[in-house]
Specification:
The structure is a single chain. By secondary structure, the protein is mainly alpha-helical. The protein has 39 helices and no strands. It starts with a helix and ends with a helix. The N terminus is likely disordered.
């Protein structure tokens, strides 16, 4: 009764008494079942192994398989099922558990097909007039759940949902079915349904930690690490529950609380050293700390085992890639990409990252597309979101900012609470001149725990530069630089902000910081060129910008990076060689159509060349991208008058006066409007 109620403590007490009365075979089996209810996988495995020593029964082997799978030892779990099947061929619970193990372990298609065949045998037995192998309502529910899990692993989510509906209808009768149904709803991205079922389960089994842990898992899957931690806080003492400890560690990881994550995950692994989910999360902590070699070392021994799961191999390959061992990662990812389903999607995501590391941007884009296609939809904070987010960022880096913005806007709709998405969407809106939308997105990102604090600060700084708010820009960018000192873009933006504010000392100080931190890299040359140009050292600036551009081209850097260097090189040539400057500026805007200042200089060049019509086009692009640049509105008005485009001139002068009624050119703008 205690097991049915999900009361692990009462079950353990009763099992201890039973062991004294009925012996090791029964007592240890019941102790193992009690430990399974509490998700103490190692304790369960030990008790069940002792039970089998006393009496090798199929039910004990099946329970042992469940324990081994719970701690990620899939080869051992499969072996336990095989022993049950050797004792009783086609044993229904053994076939069901074997199928669930195949789904959980990322087994290849042939093994998944074999699992389906086994489940078909269970279904046939269940439909017979007089089932001979103990196929009752519970086995039917578990078989439906197992089929749903296998179909999901095969990438057929439509079939998985059909089977899951059948399992869900029976989930209220058994805690194991309920836990599995909730977990699969999460895997399919049905967070709301998972929460509903977990809340119902918490009422049905009030003494079981499972439903509350499931609520935490649902919150984490939905990208709400804070809510996950809150739910786990209500699940009681987690000290002896390694699964729940590991989940709390993952929640801390998602919240960016790396020390707390490591503490919980280390505690979980101390109690259940073979818990693969905890091991993988601990490796992800290493990766988040920038220690890819530690992550790879942590996984190496298990990755080399013949029965290593696909999930472990993907994470191991990610660690190898991040540590620079890309050639070792490639064959692993190539093999996994052909596995199909979610596992293939994760492999394609890592292949995309690897291609990007190697500056194969076209290959990265194709791999991101395959990852998005293969990964399960609708999971906030999950690989599907990661693939879409990184693909959109790649579009921006390739100079396709409008495309990237559209991708990010759709992603915001799908994952409105994902701070990483919000901050990248804000950047895209700033680059395209939609400053109000950018501010709104940044305000939302500020409240999202998953938003990188340094990126929020950097993008607030970028937005402040566009608004000509120097004080806010410097404050935000200094904060960003303190949080992420190795981000070169932040350092260059900070120099831009100080130059905008005409703070000579701060500009020189910023240059010194960049030269010390980025010695010999393009960032150092770009910083040196900016400051040299500011101090009218054009020859020195030109040398720096040429050096930066050459290095970026050689490295096959993304278009926006090359465009920045090309723009500055064109700008520094404006005074001594306008024709060369124009050529470079056109090239820069081709690479990155959001370079507002490049359009300004193109307009000025064409005004000087007595081509006002062309100048109007350039100035219009500049004002669209950088509407707070008031001088460009006046320049647009002047060019439009010369091009005999009075409507454009009126609009431009009016906008100038609206933004700067007492500006340096206000009197001339009013006089021009009277003439128009």
């Amino acid at each position: 009764m205690a097991l049915l109620d999900g009361d692990a403590a009462a079950a353990q007490a009763a099992a201890t008494s039973a062991r004294s009365a009925a012996g090791a075979a029964v007592g240890d089996y019941l102790l193992g079942r009690a430990a399974l209810t509490a998700q103490r996988w190692t304790d369960a495995a030990q008790s069940l192994a002792e039970s089998i020593k006393a009496d090798a029964r199929p039910s004990a082997y099946v329970a042992l398989a469940e324990a081994e799978a719970g701690r990620g030892r899939y080869a051992e779990a499969t072996a336990a099922c095989d022993k049950a099947l050797a004792l009783v061929p086609d044993h229904p619970r053994a076939l069901i558990e074997r199928a669930r193990i195949a789904a959980a372990s990322g087994a290849p298609p042939a093994v998944l097909a074999e699992a389906i065949a086994g489940l078909d045998k269970v279904a046939t037995e269940a439909s017979s007039q007089a089932p001979k192998r103990g196929v009752g309502p519970l086995e039917v529910a578990l078989a439906a759940l197992a089929r749903a899990e296998v179909e999901h692993a095969r990438g057929d989510d439509a079939a998985a949902r059909r089977a899951l509906e059948r399992a869900t209808a029976s989930a209220g009768d058994d805690l194991r079915v309920s836990d599995g149904v909730i977990a699969l709803h999460l895997a399919l991205g049905d967070e709301a349904r998972a929460v509903e079922l977990a809340q119902r389960a918490a009422k049905t089994w009030p003494k079981s930690p499972g439903p509350r842990v499931a609520l935490a898992a649902a919150a984490l899957a939905g990208g709400d690490a804070a809510k996950a931690l809150e739910a786990l806080g209500k699940a009681g003492d987690l000290t002896d529950r390694p699964f729940a400890l590991a989940l709390r560690g993952r929640a801390h990881l998602a919240a960016g609380e790396l020390d707390d994550a490591a503490k919980d995950l280390d505690a979980a692994l101390a109690k259940s050293p073979d818990d693969e989910a905890a091991l993988l999360a601990r490796a992800e902590v290493d990766l988040a700390r920038g220690d890819a070699k530690a992550a790879a070392a942590r996984l190496a021994s298990r990755a080399g085992a013949p029965a290593a799961s696909g999930g472990l191999l993907v994470t191991y390959a990610a660690a190898l890639r991040a540590s620079g061992a890309r050639e070792q990662a490639k064959p692993i990812l190539e093999k996994l990409a052909g596995a199909g389903g979610t596992l293939a999607g994760r492999a394609w995501l890592e292949r995309a990252r690897l291609a990007r590391d190697e500056s194969d941007l076209a290959g990265a884009r194709a791999a991101y597309a395959k990852a998005v296609e293969a990964l399960p939809r609708g999971q906030a904070g999950a690989p599907w979101i990661d693939a879409r987010l990184e693909g959109a960022v790649l579009s921006i880096d390739l100079g396709e900012v409008a495309t990237g913005k559209e991708q990010l806007d759709r992603l915001v709709a799908d994952a409105p609470g994902d701070g990483r998405v919000l901050v990248e969407a804000a950047r895209a809106h700033t680059l395209l001149g939609d400053l109000a939308a950018s501010k709104d997105l940044l305000d939302k990102a500020e409240a999202a725990p998953t938003a990188p604090r340094w990126k929020v600060a950097r993008e607030r700084g970028r937005l402040a530069i566009r608004k000509r708010d120097v004080t806010q820009a410097v404050e935000s960018l200094e904060r960003a630089a303190s949080l992420a000192p190795d981000d070169g873009e932040t350092r260059l933006l900070l120099i831009d902000a100080n130059i905008l504010g005409k703070d000579d000392t701060a500009a020189r100080r910023g240059l010194g910081d960049v030269l010390a931190r980025f010695k010999g890299r393009p960032e150092a040359a770009l910083a040196g060129g900016r400051v040299a140009y500011y101090f009218s050292k054009d020859s020195e600036a030109r040398t720096d910008f040429q050096q930066a551009r050459d290095a970026l081209v050689k490295a096959k850097a993304p278009a926006r990076a090359v465009a920045d260097a090309t723009y500055w090189l064109g700008r520094v040539r404006y005074d001594d060689n306008p024709d060369e400057a124009r050529k470079l500026l056109v090239e820069a805007t081709t690479l990155d159509p959001t370079l507002a200042d490049a359009y300004v200089f193109l307009g000025l060049i064409d005004v000087d060349k007595n081509a006002p019509g062309s100048a109007v086009t350039w100035f219009q692009k500049a004002t669209t991208l950088d509407p707070e640049n008031i001088d460009t509105w006046f320049d647009l008005g002047q060019a439009a008058v010369a091009a005999k485009q009075p409507l454009i001139a009126k609009t431009a002068y009016t906008e100038y006066l609206h933004r700067a009624p007492n500006g340096d050119n206000a009197a001339d703008a009013r006089a021009a409007l009277k003439k128009l």
